[in-house]
Structures are given as C-alpha cells and as structure tokens.
C-alpha cells in the first residue's frame, strides 16, 4: 500500500498534471516592466498597452499593418559584392551576415515593398534594426535606389521607415559612399515631383541621419525615438556638460523645428494616408466600403414595399 501511495499515485498525478508552456507567451515592457501577453502586444503593433512604450517591430510586421489587407509585393534589390574588404574583427564579416540572416530571416537590413494604403498606391522601404543594428551598407544603398527608381517608374510616393545605428564599419568607405548615392536617389523623386515621406523610428543615428533620413518632404517620428548624428553620451564627453532632459528625442526635435509630427505607431497608418493623399492632391480616403446590394435582395423588397404603400 505504501508503494502505491508513495510512488505510483504521485507518478500518475505528475504525468496528467504536466503542461507544456511555451517560453514566448509573455513579453516584458522595457520601460515599465509590465508583463504583456504576446497576442495583445502583437495586436497593438508592439506598443505597450500599459505605458505606451514603443518596442521594436520588424519590417514585415510593419508592412502587414501598413498596407491595405497586409498585402504587398516585395521589390528585388541588386545584391552587392560580398565582403569587398575581406574584413574581420572578432568574426569574419560573412559569418556575421549569416548569423544576422539566421536570426532575422531576412536577406539584409532593408525591405522594399509595393502596395496600397487607403487605396493609394505607394512604395515603402523599411530598415531592420535587428539586422546588424540596421547599419547602412551597400545593400541598404541599393535598396533605397531600387525603391526610388520603382517609385519614379510607377509614379508613386515613397515612404521610408528609418532605424539604424549608422554606417556599417565592415564595409569601410564603401558604406560611407551610400550617403551621396541615397541623396541622389532622393533627388530623383524630387525632380519627378513625387512625395518622399520619412518615418524616423528608434533609433535613427549616424550617417543615416546625415543623409536620406532627413531629406524628406515630411518628417514623422515615433514617440521618444532617439534621432541624432552623434549620441548624447559622445556629446557629453566632448563638451563636458550635462545635456537637457530628452535631448535628441523625438519630442525635443519637434519642439525645435526638426520634425513635422510625432505620431504613435497605432495612429501612424491613418496619418500617412492623410498626408500622402494631401501631397498628391487627392480627396480624403474612404474610411469604409459597403457592398453593393444584390438585385432583388431584401433592400429592394423593402424599398418596393414602401413605394407601393399609399401615403395617408
């Protein structure tokens, strides 16, 4: 009896009470520390439902939320020469690329897509900060040029989401050359009379801020995004002074005339639709569509009954 009580019964209870709990069901907010259910966070576009903190979001998830019905066509980007400098630090450059590709599932640090927002055709480009800190290499330069050429060819506006730690040091001077290349691509849009809208997300720094990220017709930023060329820590060490609170954050730059808007991610799609259609001189977007009534349906019968009834 003791053997059954002490061993068999606990063993049976442990088998039937065992539950497999996935590790990714909950997400902790980096700002307030609240534990959030993963589905709730995803539905809110990776924005904390408690404090409104904007957590990172991948390019494909952003495009799914941006384009009508989440439908978009990916634009192919010419692949640059791999490892042109044969660079090596703690790892070889090709090994770092393979690790980033495995981690993110993306080929490189920028995704370009075609689609519609509010039934307005656009071209969109989005940087992926999780891919080697969204660093600007030759592929990113090629992607922006491809996006600009596609926009000019199709006569569509270009919306770019920036998120980068700056130039990619593994490509040296070739990375820095993407600054003038992307500037020329933006000029192509301006000469074609097409809108170029930039959404600056956290963080946008370095050579990206010094080139295509600050050349838009309209600049929108997500709340509390860090936007700068040199970071606040570097500036404090250089000038040996304490910087103001919120220095180089989106709200500070808005107050000092560097930005046009600071818009939460959950409201960004509607904002982009309004601005895009305004710049294209189009009427406001239709907020909802009603299906056409079926011939001989209930609505027709109701109307015929009303018209056949004599008025008193």
Notes on the protein architecture:
With 312 residues, this protein is of the alpha/beta class. Helix content is 38%, strand content 15%. It is built from 11 helices and 9 strands. The strands form 2 sheets. The chain has a 7-stranded mixed beta sheet, with helices on both faces. Strands 1-2 form a two-stranded antiparallel sheet. It starts with a helix and ends with a helix. The mean pLDDT is 89.
Please tally the β strands and state the result: 9
Give the helix tally.
Answer: 11
Straight-line distance between termini = 91 Å
Stretches where pLDDT is under 50 for at least 5 consecutive residues are none
Oligomer state of the chains in this structure: single chain
Q: Specify the biggest β-sheet.
A: 7 strands, mixed
Write the layout of secondary structure elements.
Blueprint: H1 2-17, E1 26-28, E2 35-37, H2 38-43, H3 59-66, E3 73-74, H4 93-104, E4 110-117, E5 120-127, H5 138-154, E6 158-164, H6 172-176, H7 178-191, E7 196-204, E8 218-221, H8 232-239, H9 250-255, E9 261-262, H10 265-279, H11 298-308
Parallel strand pairs: 5-6, 6-7, 7-8, 8-9
Antiparallel strand pairs: 1-2, 3-4, 4-5
Brief descriptors of the model:
seven-stranded mixed beta sheet, alpha/beta, two-stranded antiparallel sheet, 38% helix
Give a quick summary of the entry.
By secondary structure, the chain is of the alpha/beta class.
């Amino acid at each position: 009896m003791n053997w059954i009580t002490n061993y068999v019964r606990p063993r049976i209870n442990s088998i039937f009470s065992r539950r497999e709990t996935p590790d990714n069901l909950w997400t902790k907010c980096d700002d307030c520390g609240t534990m959030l259910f993963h589905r709730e966070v995803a539905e809110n576009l990776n924005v904390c439902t408690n404090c409104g903190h904007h957590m990172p979001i991948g390019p494909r998830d952003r495009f799914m939320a941006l384009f009508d019905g989440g439908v978009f066509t990916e634009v192919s980007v010419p692949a640059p020469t791999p490892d042109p400098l044969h660079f090596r630090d703690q790892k070889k450059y090709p090994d770092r690329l393979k690790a980033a590709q495995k981690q993110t599932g993306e080929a490189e640090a920028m995704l370009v897509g075609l689609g519609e927002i509010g039934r307005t055709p656009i071209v969109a480009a989005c940087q992926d900060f999780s891919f080697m800190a969204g660093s600007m290499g030759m592929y990113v330069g090629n992607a922006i040029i491809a996006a600009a050429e596609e926009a000019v060819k199709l006569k569509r506006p270009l919306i770019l989401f920036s998120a980068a730690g700056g130039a990619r040091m593994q490509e040296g001077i070739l990375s820095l050359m993407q600054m003038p290349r992307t500037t020329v691509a933006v000029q192509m849009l301006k000469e074609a009379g097409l809108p170029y809208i930039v959404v600056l997300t956290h963080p946008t720094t370095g050579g990206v801020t010094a080139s295509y990220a600050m050349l838009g017709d309209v600049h929108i930023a997500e709340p509390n995004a860090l936007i700068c060329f040199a970071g606040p820590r570097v500036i404090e060490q250089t000038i040996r002074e304490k910087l103001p609170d919120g220095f180089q954050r989106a709200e500070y730059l808005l107050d000092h005339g560097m930005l046009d808007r600071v818009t939460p991610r959950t409201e960004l799609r509607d904002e982009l639709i309004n601005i895009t259609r305004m710049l294209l001189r189009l009427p406001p977007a239709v907020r909802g569509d009603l299906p056409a009534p079926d011939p001989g349906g209930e609505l027709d019968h109701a109307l015929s009954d009303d018209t056949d009834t004599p008025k008193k």
